[in-house]
Amino acid sequence: MTFANDIEFARLMDEKDPLRVYRDEFLFPTRGGSDAIYFAGNSLGLQPRTVGGYLLEELGEWAKLGVEGHFQARHPWLLYHEFVTDMMARLVGATPLEVVAMNSLTVNLHLMLVSFYKPTKERYKILIESDAFPSDRYAVNSQVKLHGYDPQDAVLELKPREGETCLNYDDIEQFIEKHGDEIALVLLGDVNYLTGQAFDLGRIAFAAHEKGCVFGVNLAHGAGNLRLNLHGDEVDFGVWCSYKYLNAGPGGIAGCFVHEKYADAFDLPRLAGWWGHNKETRFEMGKEFDPSPGAEGWQLSNPPIFQLAALRASLEVFDKASMTAVRKKSVLLTGYLEFLLNSIPKDFCTIVTPSDPDQRGAQLSLKVGKQAPQLVRQFRDNGVICDFREPDIVRVAPAPLYCSFYDVYKFGLVMNKFANS
Ligand SMILES: *Cc1c(COP(=O)(O)O)cnc(C)c1O
Fold first, then answer.
1. pTM, 2 dp
2. How far apart are alpha carbons 248 and 251 in whole angstroms?
3. How many Å lie between the centroid of ligand 1 and the Cα of residue 217?
4. Radius of gyration (C-alpha) of the chain in whole angstroms
5. Which of 54, 179, 306, 402 has the fewest CB within 10 Å, making it most exposed?
6. Ligand 1 environment, Cβ below 6 A
7. pLDDT digits (tens, 9 = 90+) for 157-198
8. By alpha-carbon position, which residue is closest to atom 15 of ligand 1?
């Protein structure tokens, strides 16, 4: 694709965009009377128009039916989490048995660590990224401590090379090859939240498994962003939130993937709750926990129906648009953003995200140095919403379901103006 830095080109790309109709299915914050340039979908996705109706429907059922809503609502609450299972499975490349919507992201990560981090005397370490999301690090450190180890010793970090920001595959593989015998678990973000680097999960799963390590993935920045194939890539477990690219609303209910090979692994240690109990006999209120097969067996509580309703609405949009089409547009949209940034003559920011589209999703991370506060002000004054991470990284993520090439073009103008001010 040859891009051009002019408004006609951006307009033409929008006209040709098969997903352009989806923009209208989302509610945009406005700035100065028009839609904001919303490039923060990696932080909080916009609200699908259908969400309000779905929530009202459940409020209505509750008003009308009370407790009977569990069975008699149009979408019975007893089964509600199952209404998102197939869509979620398609989204992450899994079988329905392998996924469940439950809890929130960090809770799910803990539940998975309880089951899949099984340290032994020889093999007790966890390998993470040096710039792992703080919550992931806290979760890992606390689990390690729970087993009586010292995070200083038991948590290993993959670091970029001197002077680089992203990880190098050869380094990852060599590290696992060298230290794998001591590593119980490799845990990566499938797109790093800070740098935007995306990993080939199949390749890392292979390296981890060769050395007998479990491979878990945090898909907070991958779900709804990349085409995923968790089953085929042999990822052992995965967790994600639904409020970023998945547009299911602030604090939305999270997702969890457990590979089919563990569907009947009832001997794995796990924290149990009644919703994970075999559905046939759950309401017999027995004393023995009899887990459901597959990911559902990790559920604890009866789930929040309003959050599930919002997730159902948002997943339907993805299902209709198809992740293949979303990703196809994303490569072009982010490629256009990269092109425009690179065509700014002044060297005032560095794109730290890899330029290979296979190694990134929608997000570009820009290192902006000391000018960060001025740039953030420039964004605010020009109707741009994107996010800033200390000390000097601006993350820009045009979400393909609702962002246009024209948005990207306008963002380029704002950056150009800033560079020349
Ligand atoms: C967004 C994000 C989180 C947030 O965790 P919550 O439990 O949803 O608050 C954790 N880890 C990563 C990698 C994230 O990107």
1. 0.97
2. 8
3. 12
4. 22
5. 179
6. 104-106, 133, 135-136, 189, 193, 218, 220-221, 241
7. 999 999 999 999 899 999 999 999 999 999 999 999 999 999
8. 220
